[in-house]
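Example record

The entry below shows one chain as it appears in the dataset: sequence first, then structure tokens.
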Amino acid sequence: MHEELLHLIREKGLLLEREIFELLNSFDNLQAAKDFLEGIERYSGQKMITRSLLHNNSSYIQQVVSKLPGKDKAMVEHTFVNLGVHLEIRKEQVVVPYSSNLKANKYQIFTADTKTDKKLAVSDFVGNLRARYSQMQRILMQRPDLTNLMSIGKISSNRQQVSVIGMVREKRITKNKNIVLLIEDLTGEIQALVRADKEELATIAGEIQLDDVIAIKGSGNRDLIFAQEVYFPDAFIHEKIKFEEDMCIAFLSDLHCGSDRHLGKSLQNFLDWIQSDDPLAAKVQYIFFVGDNVDGVGIFPGQESVLKLKSMKEQYALLASYLRQIPKRITMFMCPGQHDAVRVAEPQPIIAKHYAPELYEIENLVLVTNPTLIKLLEAEKEFKVLMYHGASIHTFISEIQELRLMKAHKTPAKAVRHMLKRRHLAPTHSSVVYIPSPEKDPLVITEVPDVLCTGEVHRLDIENYNGVLIVTGSCWQAQTPFEEKVGNIPDPAKVPVLNLKTRELRVLDFGDVSEVQREN
């Protein structure tokens, strides 16, 4: 166990005091030791695990220790007392929200791996693309219509019917308006030609972006394939999950606490409603906060001129004052966005305790990464909600002609459809700043969610794509000078509420007329 524990510590770039290492090494259950170590790292946001760190996070330690098997539990309690960390172990089962893949009574959280424990090199980005290709290949290989599927390197010089799966490396349009794609897999590369006179196929090919992983069915040889069909990985929900319990979930995003245009009165209207005796409010059991929870500091040049609260801690203190008003029966999930106190590069880690200590004191608040998949559970049923703030939405709109022409910033759910079609939240290499992972691309949509909720664009928009409900969040900030400059008109103070028994979706408007001005 000693060597395996050391390997985990090195892998995560952690530093442990000797007493802490000896404590973990004495666990009978290696997995319990790993879960404890990973959990305290996530909960505290620290890489150096010390006695004082455990003491300052004793409430979390209590939750972990209460779940240990009898022998480990007694030993750990005794050791913590010797370390000066006094625990009052709770008798009831407590949900530990920060552990990946943890199955609780009512929900399960799958956070993204956000570690950055080494200096990045070109090989890491290459490895990330290779990992993504392998993930997408497994999805595409499930399509029964890909006949005679083979690796690019195995295509012969003889003309034949063939199907291939590849990542788009280059895309160009000839003078005859044909589209030529250069695609590659792990064995080689090949060109594919999409003829302009095949209008439906040409339209599909026109949407293809660099780094998309697609399947092509056609005829040709090792030099060129004439495409007859083009397939995206795509997302489908064939059976909509409905719970037996009459319960609801709500979606909020882009609170921008601390901005001088923050709509505090409107948000208070929502908080008053959620605490009221309204029958719909009483059914809400989960609330999803999808990023940009505060306005941030230094996010863009001259931001201080449009801030009411000029420090992160003040902004998060205001946010916490709102969240404390939400009834304890409701579990809240909160991921960060570009304005929060985390790095911009995706996947983004949970909001750091250093800047937002009050958030860690709210028992019914679960801080998660961006993105995060959350499964709400009822018996054998799983209702999946994928949270992603949505930084890549702007790239989709600027790069896909159809979205650009329809000015899709007004209807952002149409851009989110393309994430589901590609089974990736930000497929083009330059669409967002990201941390590459050679083991697994965390932005791949591995499991098709029942709901994909985003924020970012400050406009509520709702669509259904192949059975998946898309919700792009409203905002709680009046139009900013930048939005006015680029012509973006926000649609603030609206909350969609989804009933998991009936699948009925209602949109509630909490706008205070004294602070909200809309242009219809």
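Notes for this example: Residues 122-140 form the longest helix (19 residues). Confidence is low (pLDDT under 50) at residues 86-104.
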